[in-house]
Amino acid sequence: MAIPVTARPYEFNLDPARLALVVIDMQRDFIEPGGFGAALGNDVSRLTAIVPTVKALIGLFRRHGLPVVHTREAHRPDLSDCPPAKRLRGRPGLRIGDQGAMGRILVAGEPGNQILPELAPLPGEIVVDKPGKGMFWATGLHETLSERGIAQLVFAGVTTEVCVQTSMREANDRGYECLLIEDATESYFPEFKAGAIEMIVAQGGIVGWATPLSALLAAFEGALVHA
Ligand code: C5J
Questions:
Q1: What is the DSSP letter of 160?
Q2: Cα 186 to the center of its chain, rounded Å
């Protein structure tokens, strides 16, 4: 049964049988004060502000027994999956693999690389460590989703214009229909968030659709009333 969701640029017809939620990189180093994001001079309070909305979105999917995918931007401790062009970007001391306030920056298993405790994955949920900005590069996620018959993805997480947008574009090219929850994603730069969302929905939804969480909740409630 399709559930119509009010969205931009036009209604998104959600099919719960083929649907998954993807929560991008809600990891401590990007979001918590004192982490890597803050060390780069970013105002992380913009990102901490969306945590309750992301939590409510995850709760909606869990209540309906729908799949949830969590990603982390994470490299192997030996950095064999981090190309020098990525590793050498930025100031020495604040590069991938360097020691930060919450352990080695963007390295799997380090405290800063963990998903925020309040959004922690439950057993059985898919957790993807991705060495790139996009969630499909070198992860096998497309195969995992395809095996489960997933064809529609709802997106949340950080940052809108980097890992969220890259992942949505990768998903769009692989044939997924993508819906971004606007108040469950954030950027350190408000103008980049706004610009990324406009790019996604422009030209008839060239990358996908966007809507606030309230519209998704209303759509699910409406579907239950009419079930
Ligand atoms: C960044 C991300 N911004 N998760 N990562 O480097 O968007």
A1: I
A2: 10
25 lines ligand 1 (CB under 6 A): yes
d(CA 76, CA 212): 35
The yes-or-no verdict on residue 1 having pLDDT over 80 is no
Cβ of 211: how many Cβ atoms within 10 Å? 22
Q: Is the CB of 162 under 6 A from ligand 1?
A: yes
Is 173 a catalytic site residue?
A: no
The rounded distance, in Å, linking the Cα atoms of 120 and 224 is 27
Q: Are strands 12-14 and 3-5 parallel, antiparallel or unpaired?
A: antiparallel
Greatest Cα pair distance in the chain: 58
Kindly write down the DSSP assignment for every residue of 159-204, as one continuous string. -IIIIIHHHHHHHHHTT-EEEEEEEEEE-SSHHHHHHHHHHHHHHH
SS3 164: helix
For ligand 1, whether the C-beta of 73 sits within 6 Å is yes
Per-residue pLDDT tens over the stretch 73-110: 999 999 999 999 999 998 999 999 999 999 999 999 99
Cβ–ligand 1 contact at 105 (below 6 Å): no
CA distance 131 to 30: 15
Nearest CA to ligand 1 atom 4: 163
Q: What is the pLDDT of residues 34-72, one digit of tens each?
A: 899 999 999 999 999 999 999 999 999 999 999 999 999
Q: How many angstroms is it from 146 CA to the middle of ligand 1?
A: 25
Cβ 150 vs Cβ 18: under 8 Å: yes
Query: Residue 100 — φ and ψ, nearest 5°?
Result: -110, -175
